[in-house]
Amino acid sequence: MSLRTERPQCAGAGVVMEFDQDNDRDSPVIKARSTPRSALIYLKGPKFLIYVSGALSMWGDRMWHFAISVFLIELYGHNLLLTGIFGLVVAGSVLLLGALIGDWVDRNPRNKVAHLSLFIQNVSVTICSIVLMLVFSYKKHIEEIWDGWLTVVCYTVVIILADVANLASTALTIAIQRDWIVVITGYNRGHLAGMNATMRRIDQVTNILAPLAVGQVMTLASNVVGCGFILGWNLVSLIVEFIFLSRVYRIVPELSVKPPVLEHQSCLEKKRERKSSQGRRSECPPAAISEENTNSLHLQEQSRVPPCIHRLRGLLSTCREGWRAYYRQQVFLAGLGLAFLYTTVLGFDCITTGYAYTQGISGSLLSILMGVSAVAGLLGTVLFTKLRKACGLVNTGVISSSLHLGCLMLCVCSVFAPGSPMDLSVLNVRNVSDVGGMAGGHQRHGYPLRGGSNQPFLPDRSSIHWTNNTVLFENAPSGTEPESYVSIILLFLGVITARVGLWSFDLSVTQLLQETICESERGVVNGVQSSMNYLMDLLHFLMVISAPQPQHFGILVIVSVLFIFTGHTMYFLYARKAKRKLRTDT
To answer: Which parts of this chain are annotated as the region Disordered (predicted)?
Structure first.
């Protein structure tokens, strides 16, 4: 039986990719390590350089994402308004521009994409840090200028620059983790799985350590020093990453080769041109109008349209074709299923940890649970590599999905377990005055809350330590002990153990996207995938807005599990279709 896998075809690109199973033939990484197998050669090889560059980039991203949220809260008087606006702008921009970013990645040489994305990201963060330092240092003077409108301008500049940095980071992630890695491993499935797993482990570790590091700097020194620390890190990281990526591009000649799509045209542009030319031929028969007259008429039509309108039409057409390309992919259901997993409250974000706080969990215990969750995520990457080698990639996704869903059943059980505050009667319109109040007659949990009858998930900012996507609290509120910890124990037991299957499934779908998407559409399809992820992530915030009280959290858990079940069902349908096609081909 041949070790070659199915070849992803791309209409008009003329490029055929072939993936080896696990042998070492034709892999640039193996060539760098085969003779001799010395540590020095490995340290100079593309694999290690990508790991170091990725680690620096992820560390900087995690520090910045944590710090910008804290800075915006501090600037606006311990209010979450600016943070909410920032989150909406970031998610909305990727949702709208994901296809355009991916198309830009496809249209340009790999070194240009990586270097320009890296430069824009780090320069944006650097300028934003400088603006924040000035605002923190001279806030009172700035508030007196233009009747306070200069402050609004500064807030706007900070949010725009942070959003630009996030867009550039998205482009860099698509380029390096979805394209470069595939080429560096020589289209070898085994080495591709290993690099994907290693990059995810680096991401898991930096997700915990980077916010803690910059948080300590901000706590022990000041916000101004914290901004300066991030500024310095980005400048150093920019230089090191630029050098390392340039070296990788030089020592892996395959990176300089892109699909022969008419030199400077993307696959999507060619499709648009074919459609427009077909439309012109159908409207103007050759017997009636000559080719020269057709070209002149086309130029006259373009001259009547303002350049900005023509450019806007082109961008909208690119977005439309990008989403169509995403829908045409063989792994469409798998990618869409992965996006559905983002609509959940069952993770270590501010929502779940805020709910845990209302149930009597202290900040120190939450930090320990975060660490255990990170270890579970690392175990998921190990499980992925083992299962992929033993069962195949598609079956690995099926097993990971089943494991993920099985662990989440513990979260469903927690909704009905002793100690759960869920009370469906608070949804009754007649009881609207009691919504959010846990001290009334509907209270099942004996743990009192501070702040009156409209107590949200998050308490006052003064008792909060902020970490990346997580809120930790100095001390649990004083009061009587909860009647039972069974519910909260089952909740976090399910969330933590589910991380193993979650990250294994994520890596399975990621590699399926890498293997099956043709090279000329790799950027735009992954850009649309990023847009889908952000769209589903926005839905989970809308869920919380519609049901914001602790009594509602059980409903959010059930709805989250339903979304996750739907996502895995989509993957099961894809797996069934893929296996059926494999049997038909053999």
So the answer is: 268-287
